[in-house]
């Protein structure tokens, strides 16, 4: 049997903020069968992850294109691969059977032809909603956990600052830090998000960065004794302000610089004398570097979820057509928590 597979593509490379007209819905014919022994599978996509890094893949040039295979350049008109999960509808891979739930790299499409060499695993939902497996129990969770513990190297009682605090990664970082015994302040882009951080997620404090005119003095106010760990999701002037307020031997876990993705002119220029004399470590990292803590991450996170200590924020839109607006919304701060698009019912 053959279906018309609908997918989202970019029409052109995108070098600034993405807009609806940069995207189109395209179709291609797809056989819902594969040759036995080919190693390939056809997966019906159920949930796909909407992530800021994709915008770097959409550029003409980005250093991300040559770093790891998840982040190679996207060609206009072609299918866009993305983290997600789905159900196997045909399998030529002996490790998978029709009907299996799988999680890994699928695509912004109704169906994905998953090649043998792709990153895909069987999914055991373990009693949790399917969406958790591409958020808190997936890459976002691993990024938060690995970045905080491996790169941030926290000690109990240390002072932690997290930007994009209500986002997919940020809301988990703040909670891991609190559960570990740190003092945590987050920033976010609206009053509603700030209230959520303080009242639902248990951050010690939070502020709306859009209402502040001098971020260096804002951080001085929230951290009179200095910052030990800055988990940076945004870059630019927030990174400069955090470095200015770091303590000696402070660590910056540089997860991403979303404010620079769509505006290269915003590039951060932290005071490098601060970095030298305060012996600050600024270290970029990728979730893929955190696989050595994966077992710890999973058992700790499952435990926190089962005991109700970890709150999960998800922001789920419905249907393939809403992928462009969901994606664009990341750069406007529309989402609260992990942005996901549900494509189909199980
Ligand atoms: N290193 C890795 O392996 C890895 C893995 C996943 C994610 N990341 C990075 O982590 C960061 C967060 O990703 P996420 O998936 O958790 O996304 P997210 O935080 O759920 O969504 C993006 C959020 O960023 C904030 N934002 C957007 N534009 C901004 C700007 N110009 N200045 C300040 N804040 C802005 C918005 O919240 P506000 O309302 O607060 O502005 C928005 O809701 C990104 O930089 C991403 O690339 C890295």
Automatic annotation (TrEMBL):
<dbReference type="InterPro" id="IPR013149">
    <property type="entry name" value="ADH-like_C"/>
</dbReference>
<feature type="domain" description="Enoyl reductase (ER)">
    <location>
        <begin position="16"/>
        <end position="341"/>
    </location>
</feature>
<dbReference type="Pfam" id="PF16884">
    <property type="entry name" value="ADH_N_2"/>
</dbReference>
<keyword id="KW-0560">Oxidoreductase</keyword>
<dbReference type="InterPro" id="IPR045010">
    <property type="entry name" value="MDR_fam"/>
</dbReference>
<dbReference type="GO" id="GO:0016628">
    <property type="term" value="F:oxidoreductase activity, acting on the CH-CH group of donors, NAD or NADP as acceptor"/>
</dbReference>
<protein>
    <submittedName>
        <fullName>2-alkenal reductase (NADP(+)-dependent)-like</fullName>
    </submittedName>
</protein>
<dbReference type="InterPro" id="IPR011032">
    <property type="entry name" value="GroES-like_sf"/>
</dbReference>
<dbReference type="Pfam" id="PF00107">
    <property type="entry name" value="ADH_zinc_N"/>
</dbReference>
<dbReference type="InterPro" id="IPR041694">
    <property type="entry name" value="ADH_N_2"/>
</dbReference>
<dbReference type="InterPro" id="IPR020843">
    <property type="entry name" value="ER"/>
</dbReference>
<dbReference type="InterPro" id="IPR036291">
    <property type="entry name" value="NAD(P)-bd_dom_sf"/>
</dbReference>
């Amino acid at each position: 049997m053959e279906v018309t597979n609908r997918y989202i593509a970019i029409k052109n490379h995108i070098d600034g903020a993405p807009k609806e007209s940069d995207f189109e819905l395209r179709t291609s014919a797809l056989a819902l069968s594969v040759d036995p022994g080919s190693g390939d599978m056809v997966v019906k996509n159920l949930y796909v992850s909407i992530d800021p890094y994709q915008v770097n893949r959409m550029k003409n040039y980005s250093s991300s294109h040559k770093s790891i295979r998840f982040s190679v350049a996207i060609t206009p008109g072609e299918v866009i691969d993305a983290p997600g999960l789905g159900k196997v509808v045909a399998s030529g891979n002996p490790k998978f059977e029709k009907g299996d739930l799988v999680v890994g790299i699928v695509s912004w499409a109704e169906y994905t032809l998953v090649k043998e060499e792709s990153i895909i695993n069987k999914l055991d939902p373990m009693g949790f909603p399917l969406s958790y497996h591409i958020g808190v129990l997936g890459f976002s969770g691993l990024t938060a956990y690995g970045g905080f513990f491996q790169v941030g190297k926290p000690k109990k009682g240390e002072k932690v600052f997290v930007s994009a605090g209500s986002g997919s990664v940020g809301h988990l970082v703040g909670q891991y830090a609190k559960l570990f015994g740190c003092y945590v302040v987050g920033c976010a882009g609206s009053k509603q998000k700030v209230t959520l951080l303080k009242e639902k997620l248990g951050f010690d404090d939070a502020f709306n960065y859009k209402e502040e005119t001098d971020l260096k003095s804002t951080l001085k106010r929230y951290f009179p004794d200095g910052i030990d760990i800055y988990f940076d999701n945004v870059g630019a002037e927030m990174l400069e302000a955090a470095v200015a307020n770091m303590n000696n031997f402070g660590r910056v876990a540089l997860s991403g610089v979303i404010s620079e993705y769509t505006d290269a002119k915003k590039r951060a220029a932290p005071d490098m004398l601060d970095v030298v004399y305060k012996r600050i470590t600024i270290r970029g990292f990728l979730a893929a570097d955190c696989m050595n803590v994966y077992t710890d991450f999973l058992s700790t996170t499952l435990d926190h979820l089962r005991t109700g200590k970890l709150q999960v924020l998800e922001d789920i839109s419905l249907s393939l057509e809403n992928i462009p607006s969901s994606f664009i919304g990341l750069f406007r701060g529309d989402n609260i928590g992990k942005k996901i698009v549900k494509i189909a019912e199980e």
